[in-house]
Amino acid sequence: MPERILIIKLSALGDFMQALGPMKAIRDYHKDAEITLLTTPPFVALARQTGWFKTIWDNGRAKGLSGLLALRTQIGGAQFDFVYDLQTSGRTNWLYQLLRPSPPRWSGVAWGCSHPHANPRRVAMHTVDRQAEQLLMAGIPTTPLSDLSFIAADVSRFALTVPYALLVPGGAAHRPEKRWPLDAYKALAVQLATAGMTPVVLGGKDERALGEAIRAVCSRAINLAGETSIIELAVLGRGAALCVGNDTGPMHVLAYAGAPALALFGPASDPARCGQRGRKVQIIAVADLAKLSAGTVATESLKLAEM
User: Fold this and answer.
1) Is residue 151 one of the residues assigned to a domain?
2) 225 and 173, same structural domain?
């Protein structure tokens, strides 16, 4: 009977992207296992495209105690041989405790688990390094960097003119301090268009206004905010001359897709812990994003595109 493995990774977008490398490491290490992924609906289509999972559960955010109890029954009934908890949250700790008195072998930080990530400084580590060390302590010797080369999607409907530059001016609504000013993105779009590129604005539906504001000053710009799936983001990133954006999830997608990526960090987040990684990534970290000039960003991004 094949070994049964469960991987838990619920969200958010950037975190899920960074967990793809660890997921691949688990798949390669347990070559003949039946692997189930416990996640949330936004990541199901992407997870299916990997081909790594026999089963994908999308109810990882089942609400309240009743939701946790239902997950306990679901996980217990599947009789997993090993669980890799890549979420490592209070919620997954409670889930482990609810599986007592006979929980499966478990890699994570849940109290009493069989394969703990026993590094007291784990929270100070970059997410990529932290998860690689977690797997190492569970017996998996090497963990690759996330790679989105497996993704396929038809993006011809966007009819983008090459070369194009992807701009990500938004981010979490409750973290506006992580955003480079909109006026700076406007000026950057104009400079990129002058350099012969088509600026393409990406983001969620609630960020459409940002794209329209950029288009108002740069007629060559295209506003795709709210128009793309995660999978389409990756394919657009694969074909981009460069991308520039704030510390937000789509920038992780674009960086792992292979786009020359310039990520902008202010004091609200630490690139040493959550910075984008990829084939060609550069980070500008400053004490005050409002003082970072569009000219500086344009110069650095164009240099990156030429490398």
Assistant:
1) no
2) yes
pLDDT attached to residue 184: 98
Phi and psi torsions of 295, nearest 5°: -65, -40
Domain that holds residue 215: 157-306
What pLDDT, on the 0 to 100 scale, is given for residue 97? Answer: 97
d(CA 61, CA 64): 9
Beta bridge partners of 271: none
Question: Distance between CA atoms of 174 and 259, rounded to whole angstroms?
Answer: 27
Helix (H) or strand (E) holding 200: strand 198-201
pLDDT recorded at residue 62 = 87
CA–CA gap between residue 241 and residue 257 (Å, rounded): 12
252 with 198, same domain: the answer is yes
Residue 53, pLDDT score = 98
What is the residue whose two structure tokens read 């088509």?
Answer: 198
Query: How far is the C-alpha of 246 from the C-alpha of 145, rounded, in Å?
Result: 21
Q: Which residues pair with 262 in a beta bridge?
A: 244, 282
Q: Which residues of the chain have pLDDT under 50?
A: none
